[in-house]
Structure formats: C-alpha cells, structure tokens
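job 3f2a | input accepted
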Amino acid sequence: MTTHPFPPDLSPRHAPLPSGLALRTSTLSASKIREVSEEGAQMAGVLPLWFGEGAWPTDPIAVEAAAEALRAGDHFYHSNRGAPPLRAAIAGYLSALHGRPVPVERITVSASGMQGLALVAQALVTPGDRVVTLRPAWPNIAETFRIAGAEIHFEGLEPKEGRWSLDMTRLLAAVTPDTRAVVLNSPHNPTGWVMPEADMKTLLEHCRKLGTWIVSDDVYARLYRHGQVAPAFPALADEGDRVISVNSFSKAWSMTGWRLGWITAPEELAAPLGMLTEFNMSCTPGFVQAAGAAMLDRGEAAVATFRGRLTEAYALTSARLRALPGIDFLEPDGAFYCFFKVEGMGDSLATAKALLRVAQVGLAPGIAFGEEGEGYLRLCYAQPVEVLERALARLGEGLLTARR
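job 3f2a | predicted structure (404 res):
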C-alpha cells in the first residue's frame, strides 16, 4: 500500500498556506459522512443511519448520577488525569473484563475516545514518524496521527470468503524497524472486522522485537457478536509492553453526547498524558465523570440490553440486505455496522446523496473511509426494528432508482 504524509500538490516545501494557516490545517478534508448528514438534515422524513451511535437514550443511572453531582456542587476543576473514583472504577472494570489486574496508575480519563486518540498521538509522534494503520477505516484515526506529524502508511482490509480479512504477512512487513506505531481498531469501523487473538499475539511479538507501539482503539470491544468481549490487546499485553488502549463510553453505554473516554497506557506515560490533558482542555467535567463511574458500577444491565437490541437489529438487517439484488453482503463480527458493496456503483457519495432524495434513507458513503471503501455504503443498524423495517424497504427501491 502507499504512504500518505501530504497530498501530492501540498508538499511541505512547495505548499502555499492559505490565509496563513498551518499546513496541518490546509491539508485536512471535511468528513463526507457529515456532508451527507448535513444535506439530509434539511430534508423532512429522512431515516438517519449514517452516524455511529445507537438510537436509544443513555440509561437513567448516568443521568441521575450527573444531576446529583451538579446538585452537590461538582462545578469545578478535577485532576488532569481524571477523578479518582472514575479511574478506580475503570481499573476495576478492566481487571474483571480481561481477567488480569490493571493498576489505576495506568488509567487516564479523556473527553471522548477521539480526544484519547489525539492525546496518544501527541504523546508518541514526532513529525516525520512512520505510523501504520488500516483502510477502509474511520478517517479520524489516521487524521489525528497525521495532524501530529506522522507519515501514514495504509494497509488494506480485503473481502475474503464473505468477511473482511487482513493479510498478516503484509502487515508484519509494513511494520518496519522505523515504524513508531501501528494503530488498529477492532472491532472495526466500518467493516465489523475483528482481529483474531492469534494474529494479535503475532503482531504483539513482532512489535516487542522492534520497540514499536501498538495503539488499539477498543471502543467497540463490548459489541462483539460472538461473546461478551472481543479479543483485545489489553488482555494479552504484559505490563512492560508498548501497548496503549483507547476506549469510550459512547458505544456500549449509549453515551455518545457525553464525550467521555479513557486511555490505558504504561505508567511511563502517566505524567506526559496528564500534562497533555492540561494543555488541551485541563480536565473532563466532573459531573460527566460521575455519570461514567455510575454506569461502570451499576450499568452492566444497560450494556446487556443494548447488545440484545443489536442482536435483533442485526438479524433483520443482514437478512434484508442479503436478499437485495446487486448487494455483496460481507458479514461483520463486531461493532454495529453493515458495510456492503453495491454492484455497479462508482460514486458512493453521489449515491448516498441520491438515496436521501429518492428513498429518504441516510447512509454513510464508502469513500468517506478511504479509497478502499469506494463502491460500498455503511449502514448503522443500532436502531429499533420498526425503523429498520421502513429504512430497508425504502433502500431496496431507492438503490434501483439511484443506479438508473
């Protein structure tokens, strides 16, 4: 695959800086998912399946905990790395989930998983460092490391026997002695691919020999279709390994709007991550942290309910998509997306916009996830079945019309 530090017409040596902006700003591209959603938001009756979030509100446990914290006067700064009760709750949760102790000193609270990735990128990357990651993929992952100055090398996921697959021989060859970090998201957005535990062990051993960091985006770890938790690097890594896990309350706990996440990293990164938090946003709001701690303490039933809803939603969505003519359905093993290929579709962005008009269904265009995603559409099935019934009925007719 290819390395993309800058677009070809914007090299550091020759690029004009519009309005005096830094090169990191001038080379960013707007989200094509947002482009579709903002157009669809102006239309009446669109069924929005474009974003990666569930349709159900956060459990009252979190709402009441946040309200009580505010009523009790939790209106002030907290420690950079997070309030002690939340950090302790996260450490206990991870220790039980993965069956191995996680010291609280390894936990840093972040204002979302996205901000966690940004802090990690700032902590690890010196401009010009090589970072390996995958495509198609949620573009924010690569972009946050590129903003920090990394030169991004992409390896591609590929369809194989009805699922997405990663060629480990190619990946290991790409992770060279000069590779600063390999950044993976499993379960994966948008494909639902899950890295097998055996492959994780192989990559971990390879990175140990090279001194390369593994950054694991684990926000969908609990949304695994074959068990309570997906295979995960935190369950395999030893205390001294260069493994960092970024996680979030957004997905499994239905807390996208709360903007709360955490980083699990070696203790040597505790002080740097604390300082970076200070210089980025000081701290995460205390009442939001109280909501997260309450969910870890008493919200496991809410996670189970959400997983049950996803099981029902996936059964319906996968059956309907498989039955549509011209659809190449690839089975996901985790997350809550179906990323499917549409026969004869050469412009997924134009098709996604056409579906807004002709079917009133909002999907994410595959090109939003990189050039390897062109020809695909992403559907988030974290919706009530009655919504999915209507959306999928419209989609079948809409695809026929949009491709004419």
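job 3f2a | The radius of gyration is 21 Å.
job 3f2a | closed
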